[in-house]
Design a protein that fits this description.
Elements: E1 5-6, E2 24-33, E3 36-44, E4 50-57, E5 64-65, E6 84-92, E7 95-105, E8 121-130, E9 136-141, E10 149-153, E11 162-168, E12 171-177, E13 185-190, E14 201-204, E15 209-210, E16 215-222, E17 228-235, E18 243-246, E19 271-279, E20 282-289, E21 293-300, H1 301-307, E22 309-310, E23 317-318
Antiparallel strand pairs: 1-21, 2-3, 3-4, 4-5, 6-7, 7-8, 8-9, 10-11, 11-12, 12-13, 13-23, 14-16, 15-16, 16-17, 17-18, 18-22, 19-20, 20-21
Length: about 325
């Protein structure tokens, strides 16, 4: 049985003639705002800089979008000289909290990070906040001392603390603190599994979804051949550092031509989700395909939970 049902009219967003989104439109965060669904999507333009655009829908499948980016790298911010990428949205403490990756290069002479392909990339998690998706507050980098990506904020405080999940290569980490930028702990909670679909590196997808069984985390995994797929893990509701169960097989992997880069000529073979909308017992999952276009599909929460296999609880690594 096919658990994940792709929308028959995928992709739903593609590059346009606008110079800032002419090469790629993908990896979108999602939020329900009244009767609307808002997507904040990553766009790459003629200058190879990533910016964030906004699209709006009433049905979750047909979107209208603005001609200008809604967020872009700040000129005076050394962490954002190569743009801002891959947002996630969580409503918490009265704001839509938008976590994204601030991209720049390390100064000349700095060694290239082990995870970087072609340049000494420097990546940091940064925060913007809004109440109306018109006016934004920029809080800047929230974990300053290490390269980190794939940030996702839990939708409620636990024991009055913020819980932030993110990727320190090659694993998924959990940071806990009472206020932004002041963290009491950083702990590795999920690691790649050698020889499996998530064997080379993993990272959080959309913000975790609270269920009766615990926090459902959709995450992506990359294998040794460079293919990105999506699976899930179940985290304890009171202590999300405890991993209860995990996908042995992905529920989403590249199949369509636009997911394998066949149509666009992109070398990337990838499906990569940053946003979901939970409605009744179903998830609407928005995902980037081949690092170029945006697609959508649906999956039953209960069916996805039913595929997860018990995980041996690890103490992890704490710093």
């Amino acid at each position: 049985m096919q658990l994940f049902k792709r929308f028959e009219k995928n992709p739903i967003l593609e590059p346009t003639s606008n110079p800032w989104e002419s090469k790629a439109v993908f990896n979108a965060a999602a939020a329900k705002v009244g009767s609307e669904i808002k997507l904040l999507y990553r766009a790459v333009g003629d200058d190879n800089i990533s910016r964030i655009g906004i699209a709006t829908s009433y049905d979750g499948y047909t979107f209208s979008r603005q001609d200008q980016p809604i967020l872009e790298g700040q000129a005076n911010n050394p962490y954002e000289t190569r743009g801002i990428e891959d947002p996630r949205i969580t409503f918490l403490d009265g704001y839509y909290n938008i976590l994204y990756v601030a991209a720049s290069l390390y100064p000349e002479g700095h060694p290239k990070p082990v995870w970087a392909y072609d340049a000494p990339w420097r990546v940091r998690i940064a925060l913007a906040r809004t109440k109306d998706f018109v006016n934004f507050e920029r809080d800047g980098v929230v974990i300053k001392d290490r390269d980190s990506k794939d940030p996702a904020l839990f939708g409620e405080r636990i024991a009055d603390k913020l819980y932030l999940i993110h990727r320190i290569y090659p694993s998924v980490w959990l940071s806990v603190g009472r206020e932004w930028g002041v963290w009491e702990s950083h702990k590795c909670i999920l690691e790649p599994r050698k020889g499996m679909w998530d064997g080379e590196r993993i990272g959080a997808g959309p913000p975790p979804i609270k269920t009766k069984e615990g926090w459902l985390l959709i995450y992506h995994g990359k294998d040794r051949e460079g293919v990105y797929r999506s699976g899930a893990a179940l985290l304890d509701s009171k202590d999300p550092s405890r991993v209860l169960a995990r996908s042995s097989e992905p529920f989403l992997e590249p199949e369509a031509e636009h997911e394998k880069g066949i149509i666009s000529g992109n070398k990337s073979v990838a499906v990569f989700s940053c946003g979901v909308i939970s409605q009744a017992s179903e998830l609407i999952v928005y995902y980037g395909a081949a690092d170029r276009v945006l697609c959508v599909g649906t999956i039953s929460i209960n069916e996805l939970l039913g595929t997860l296999e018990p995980e041996k609880v690890s103490k992890g690594v704490q710093i």
